[in-house]
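Box 3.1 A note on notation
Throughout this textbook, protein chains are presented in two layers. The first layer is the amino acid sequence; the second is a token string describing backbone geometry. Keep the layers aligned when reading.
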Amino acid sequence: MTIKLPEAIEAYFDADRDGSPDAVAAAFTENGSVKDKGKSHTGRDAIRKWMADESQQYSYTVEPFHIALEHGKTLVTAHAVGTFPGSPIDLRFLFVLAGDKVAELEITV
């Protein structure tokens, strides 16, 4: 099932799909932040490092299948399959957008 994502969120998932830490970091605002696995990564350099580490550790695919608003954030639910513990799993991506960039992202189960 294909869903229509806001441009900034689509840019994030496209960059993640391409495995490009630089492109993932570029999808965020200069001081954007990611919270994943209980750790926060703030700023494009930290986000680039987070994505590079994740890409080296695991191979995976993520397919968004649902979008909604939740407490002022855009919630995207996606099916993730890969070489990580617990695969396959549906993950929740909570985005706060700032124009055409991602200001905040929290990834939860």
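The longest helix spans residues 44-57. The first strand starts at residue 28 and ends at 36.
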